[in-house]
Amino acid sequence: MFQEEAVKSWISNVIKPEQYEKYMENGKDFIDDEEIWKKLRANRNPEPQKIRDIIAKSLELERLEPNETAALLHVEDEQLWQEIFDAAGKIKEKVYGRRVVTFAPLYVSNYCVNDCDYCGYRVSNDKVKRKKLAFDELKEEVKALVEQGQKRLIMVYGEHPASDAKFIAETLKVTYDTKVGNGEIRRVNVNAAPMSVEELELLRDIGIGTYQVFQETYHHETYKRLHRGLKANYQWRLYSLHRAQEAGVDDVAIGALFGLYDWRFEVMALLFHAIDLEKRFDGVGPHTISFPRLEPAVGTPFYEKQKEYLVSDEDFMKLVAVIRLSVPYTGMILTAREPADVREKILPLGVTQLDFGTNIGVGSYSKGAFNPEKQQFLINDSRSLDEGIRWLASKGRIASFCTAGYRCGRTGNYFMDVAKSGKVHHLCMPNAILTFKEYLLDFASAETKKVGEELIKNELEAIKHPELKKTVAEYLERIEKGERDLYV
Amino acid sequence: MCKEVIEKKFHKLQVIIEDRYPSVAIALCELLGRRWSFISGVPDRIACPFMGRVKISDRYGVSVFDSTPDRKRYEQLTNFIKEFFKI
Amino acid sequence: MNLPNDRILKEFSRSGVSSSLLSLSDIVRKQKVGNYVYFRGLIEISNICGKNCYYCGLRKDNLTLKRYALSEEEAVNIAISMYKMGLTSLALQCGEVKSDRWVEKLVSIVKRVKDETKKIDVELGREPKGAGITASFGELEKEHYEEIFKAGAHRYLLRIETSNRELFYKLHPEDENHSFEKRVKCLEWLKDIGYQVGTGVLIGVPGQTYRDLLNDLMFFQLMDIDMVGMGPYIEHRSTPLYVWNRKIIESVGFYRKAYELTIKMLAFTRIIMENINMVASTALQSVPGGENSLETGIMAGANVVMPTFTPAQIKASYNIYDKRENLTISEMVEKIEKSGYVPVLNSWGDSKHYYKRVKGKPSPV
Known about the structure:
A: TIM Barrel, 2 domains, eight-stranded parallel beta barrel, 9% strand
């Protein structure tokens, strides 16, 4: 009876201006729209040699400067693009090895107070069925995922008092506590509303993995046009990851929704975002970058109006490759929003995380149903985890469920230092092998198992460090015998 | 024990361990739920196999890495580290 | 925050408590007074009373009740031991006795408690503030109130029981000893003198309507009150009100309704008055059939609790109503922490509303 007042009262207390104003200089945030366009214009028709120099710099795992990224964004020559694509693949292998982390999204609550034109969950969309998982329902969802073999989740929440920080923290706890046989969730990432430092400390204390907040579009004017109410505050959203770092959540993720504005602009802005985080937090930038593309959803006429900025598959390849070169050591997530053929094309460009077995309706995993009325957007790659893993294996990639890093102190500064020097894959590959082995033994189909064992044999051979190889071989035996959660 | 005190002790421990167990590297971590968050250590040196972790208080812990993994050495070390921080 | 009258009345009339109402009151509570619950150690100095209120077990005509009065020494000692335990905020209460000698004794108790607790502060190397003292001694002369204020009590509680004059005289004898106007006047005097003033009403008493409760809410606003203490009506067998309304009181659901109305009144008061102090009264915690009443009261907006320290032997005699439940401090602390709030024992926890009302002085909390 008093929901309206309760929600209004909650909304009026969400934004804490002092928590982002302190990062601003002369009343401005670190995205200077004019400057970005200036740099883009100034770097048209780049000289091939310049581009090759930039590619070489990236191959050394050095972060690019905005002008360099701008130059890459203006390459026209097909041959040069091929070189860029090749470099993208090489860079990723250099940092992480031939592994791809697999995860699944879990939509927990689709109640939202915002009204974003492009989103199926906007408050004015009455075609969507609103739902928030009760804790016993959440347990069922997690069980279904665990039984698939999933070990890493990204949990998604709308912005609403029903899914406030306290609720999110409780759901994390429930998720970590839900185990089925050898299955469990070892890392939970969260995609939710911008929160205050105090709220983020709550999540930190309960063991959040990565905190993700996408700016959607970094272009100030477009952002203003598309958002109303709480989400309309550009800086409160922009500095979310800064606040997270402040609160001690040292794995943060950024992203943009491509299709809202010019894709070259957004790529530049993402780079500026990574740079500012590195500047403020001792070299620690974003853990991953995501690049969802605008897609149709139930009841979203918006898609029809955005023809101008929609990103073609060709341009999509370009933007992913440029991001790869610009921040060589940052993870890149490509979700099942993209169809299988697109994921096939983008995989060699340096993607590090893919989801499979995906269901994005609230409460759909336990029912196994496809429910377009409860979804934020439509899923295009509907392959199961087993199919996805087999596909990756056919591409010479091991699926990794590794969650070692944040449990042994390889986080923040450590990660940045070591990733930048290209040493991470020494450990990423072994841990990929070990978690992959667990999957093959506990969950894989016979077909996948066969292909998987071959892959493990090859990757084990490929380990150069003799002591490490010995340890991994030993751990593999122990895993065969029934031990779990061994990592190096 | 406050952070500065623990960090100082940790650095002393690092020197001893570098001397006595050259294949071993340690990292000082802050315990945040399940997350052991890196505070101090030599990043380069801890990019080698993880052996285990020792909780030294409700808030802090030490992660142990060894480039030539040895179970016995690790167990010895665990006791040594516990002694060092008087647990 | 204002709420439309018709919705308030609608909520009163439905059975059960709307969860959205509690969500809203909890949000307002956290925003305006934080998630703290302040403790005040309560000492019931005496159960001798000159009034004859129809609903109360301490009424003059209740001859079966054993009457007691703590000596000055006893009262002060209890206060000191509470203060030493860490309770820096105290409440002194007694039945209404208008004699000068009695008031002299009360003034002396207040003064000595203040002095002794200040001495304890000095011993402990703290700033000599002494205990924060709430007085609740009924209707007295203005000069009496002034003397008590000078002696060191800076908060005063005087429940109006109901803002409806007609209902007031169904609950009290209609004579000069029980004057509605005099009682309201006392509240005004207390404000003038500079006290943080608290009042409150009985909830769920036979004869009361939802509109009466709505008007009580408006009364709190009109009087710009700093503290509210209210609770469900609970019967006392040796009172006229019980005898006259026995059938209603013993009907199924009577106390359920009184409990729910109390929670709703707490919630609405919190939402409307925002930054006042509100107690989760002992009556609320005692009402039959109210499980988790303390926790629910706090969620509804109560931010003060008053555990009693009246000596065990005489505690039973301070019998305003039957079936009184008294939780110990550690029991209260546990319940409060379990529900996610922060119990505070070592602070005066003054009403933020008071400081806004008198403007200028920052809260010493």
